[in-house]
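Quick start: what a row looks like.
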Amino acid sequence: MNKPVRKAVLPVAGLGTRFLPATKCMPKEMLPVVDKPLIQYAIEEAEAAGIEKFILITGRGKNLMEDHFDHAFELERILEKRGKKAELELVQQFPEPSMIQYTRQQQALGLGHAVWCAKDFVHDEPFAVLLPDDMVLAEKGCLAQMMDAYNEVGGNIVAVTEVPREQTNRYGILDIESDDGKLAKATGLVEKPDPADAPSTLSIIGRYILQPDVFEHLDKQIAGAGGEIQLTDAIAATLDRVPFHGLRYEGTRYDCGSKSGFIAANVAYALERPDMADDVRAALKDILD
């Protein structure tokens, strides 16, 4: 029986330089999609998948995220006094303080290093990693879909999607042994390979379920592609003893690390909202006509 996945690691120490000047003082993870910041969507997706404890790997200038998941007593008091019950519920719908921890990644040494910073939090349990930049609009959350697959096959699981071959040098790419169209068993993976050398076009997005074995490699602090400590290298180092699969999730992924992807996510999520879909659709029509 596979050990349950109760913990999630959210690396959020990046500078968000592609969104300057908006991110000069505000963490990119606090940029709103409609009316919720990116980090909140990630936390809610993880909670819906059964995650019980979270650790955010932060950096300097990221205190706003801690404030966001804390009580705002003055605001809550004003909303309560004015009888704004719906708004009050919105600002109180957060995990209990004991469920969220924070630690700093003091050097920007890559995603693998950020995950390594959570080693003491994870201990010897399987854990999830969610990158808030990646949003998946789906009826059932992406991580919940991965949990279903994990309960079947165990091991390490990543969410994957097909990319054009000329874009393989932007992603971690799986080397496939077998594939049933939904779950692909992998024998390897390569970080940002040249298109001519890519073993497939199946790329990893920002969702992982990992066994603690990855810390054996991360402890070595070995730099990989781009001179950074790569999480994919740590996964590859466990392939001789830990099963590895890529799940083709159901839903639409939006890369909110890019400006165009962020705008597209705002439109898509707004169109899912009954309270504003008609107005947004009409506004889009006016813009496009």
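That is the whole record. The chain has one domain: 7-288. The first strand starts at residue 7 and ends at 11.
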